[in-house]
Specification:
two-stranded antiparallel ribbon; 59% helix; alpha+beta; two-stranded antiparallel sheet
Length: 182
């Protein structure tokens, strides 16, 4: 029994030449269709992977762009703050009086004149940090500075809450000299 199945069927008379060619053609088309179907899912998988990679890259680019914009906005805010402090800083406040203030649990001293010392005590003048140094600014510029970054302002000395209200009223009768030096 040599030969293909078609040859055997033709010899036995069950299939004629025309029918054999038609079956062979259909079988070839089916095998070609199966190959096409196998290739299509591979292409679809590759397209899906490419689309996913493109989506991830776009997301990463968007995140980087957002971070870059935030950094630029922060830089602009710091530059604006520096400009406000430089343009509003008081000049000629140096004098023979000392003004002590607390900055990060350390006591710092400024040499000021009498007018500046009264302004600091009354809150009309504030101290701010600028490039590792201290500058004095009027209270009119304080609001602008607080909007940008309130951490550059040196806070006022807190009142002592351990003393009762009655004692505070009593001690308010006695004036403490501003030039008291220990």
């Amino acid at each position: 029994m040599a030969g293909s199945l078609f040859d055997q069927l033709k010899k036995s008379g069950l299939v004629n030449e025309h029918k054999a060619k038609q079956i062979k053609k259909e079988k070839y088309q089916q095998s070609k269709k199966k190959k096409g179907q196998k290739a299509e899912p591979v292409e679809n998988e590759a397209a899906k992977l490419a689309a996913e990679a493109a989506r991830l890259k776009a997301e990463k680019d968007r995140q980087l762009n957002l971070e870059r914009q935030q950094q630029q906005a922060e830089k602009a805010k710091q530059a604006e703050l520096k400009q406000i402090l430089q343009s509003n800083q008081l000049k000629g406040f140096e004098g023979e009086l000392t003004f002590n203030f607390a900055d990060d649990k350390q006591v710092k001293t400024l040499r000021v004149n009498a007018k500046t010392q009264k302004g600091l005590i009354n809150g009309r003048i504030r101290i701010a940090r600028l490039d590792g140094a201290y500058v004095l600014i009027p209270d009119t510029a304080v609001e602008k500075v607080e909007l940008r970054d309130a951490s550059v302002l040196i806070p006022f000395a807190d009142k002592d809450d351990s003393i009762s209200k009655e004692d505070q009223d009593y001690y308010a009768k006695f004036e403490i000299p501003d030039d008291l030096v220990w």
